[in-house]
Please model this.
Amino acid sequence: MKKILIIGSCGAGKSTLAKKLSLKTGLPLIGLDQLYWKPGWIKTERPEWRAKVAEMVKQEKWIMEGNYKNTFDIRFPACEAIIFLDFNRFVCLFGILKRRIFKNRADKLNNCPEKIDWKLIKWVLWEYPRRGREKIIHFLEKYKSKRVIILRNRRDVDNFINKKSSDFPHTR
Model:
């Protein structure tokens, strides 16, 4: 597999998994947060954002991590496999708190200091499980022809990343 998409809630560990998977497979890593956020947490305008993503998916091979459901229609058709981190909301909140306390974000953002506010907490605990996750499920149903890997906890992720090389989707 040459094009892998990693999606899931904030705090699930998409960036960490993507980094490990990139090292194991040799596939280049595309972190969508780095492309989307301008310094000071300024959002990229929607037309510019969609154009950037459309260009990125044209690359020959990649691991792309990030949700950004407004580009699912571009990314899902372009990928060969989808890894969905379908974690419990409290595990995700803990991941965000841990990242903030230890300042160990795997995907450092340019001049966007890590922050936790009620809007983020509300999203992770209530809105993502109802709206964000449901949108992902809808797209997974629509793209059943893709290889879909659903990981439900950190042990699943560890088992997945520690597979022996012959069982692992890679392109070296």
